[in-house]
Amino acid sequence: MLTACEEIFLLLPHLVGMRVECMEVRDGLVMIEASTPEDVLVPCPGCGVSSGRVHSRYGRHLADAPCDGRGVVIELSVRRLFCDNRECQRVTFAEQIDGLTSRYGRRTPVLQQMLAALGVVLARALTAPGCVCPARSWVFRMRRHLR
Ligand SMILES: [Zn+2]
Questions:
Q1: Secondary structure letter of residue 18 according to DSSP
Q2: CA 14 to ligand 1 center in whole angstroms
Q3: Are residues 101 and 140 in the same domain?
Q4: Are residues 100 and 115 in the same domain?
Q5: Whole domain around residue 122: which residue ranges?
Q6: Are residues 47 and 95 in the same domain?
Q7: Which stretch is the leader sequence (predicted)?
Q8: How far is ligand 1, taken at its centre, from the CA of residue 43, in Å?
Q9: Contacts 24+ apart (CB under 8 A), 122-127
């Protein structure tokens, strides 16, 4: 029998290893508050030496793949860590979580892959000879609004 927390990881496997503190529906969105555990060591991107010495924490807001038709936002508390290697030029660095975050990324890789696949499908549909795809007129209307 799985605990409620383990069931969350069945639905959201990219959160495995994270500490999920809250999951609720707020303003029509599924909001997930999560953080990285304190005891996990992270390699410095500059020198590769692992560190777990915390400088500070900060919040990130990541858009995730929809769940049951609702948008999902992960409010993630991540650590800024010290690099203790005296030969490394980095003093601190922000941790990245495999499968969940990327530098300056505001979407999870799962959502990014879904949007990329959707873009490919739309591009193929719109460039097909004799395209009468309803999305074609929608895309052109959206382009006008973006100018
Ligand atoms: Zn380093």
A1: S
A2: 26
A3: no
A4: no
A5: 108-147
A6: yes
A7: none
A8: 8
A9: none
pLDDT in tens, 39-53: 899 999 999 999 999
| pTM (two decimals) | 0.77
Q: Within this chain, do residues 97 and 121 fall inside the same structural domain, yes or no? A: no
Whether residue 84 sits in one domain with residue 17: yes
* Number of independent structural domains in the chain: 2
Shared domain check, 21 and 92: yes
76 CA to middle of ligand 1, Å? 23
Q: How far is CA 15 from the centre of its chain?
A: 10
Which residues crowd ion ligand 1, with CB under 5 Å?
Answer: 44, 46-47, 83, 85, 88, 90
- 3 state DSSP class of 55: strand
User: CB under 8 Å to 133, separation ≥6 — which residues?
Assistant: 125, 126
Torsion of CA 39, 44, 49, 52, to 10 degrees: -20
pLDDT in tens, 100-134: 998 889 999 999 888 888 887 877 777 777 777 66
How many Å lie between the centroid of ligand 1 and the Cα of residue 17? Answer: 23
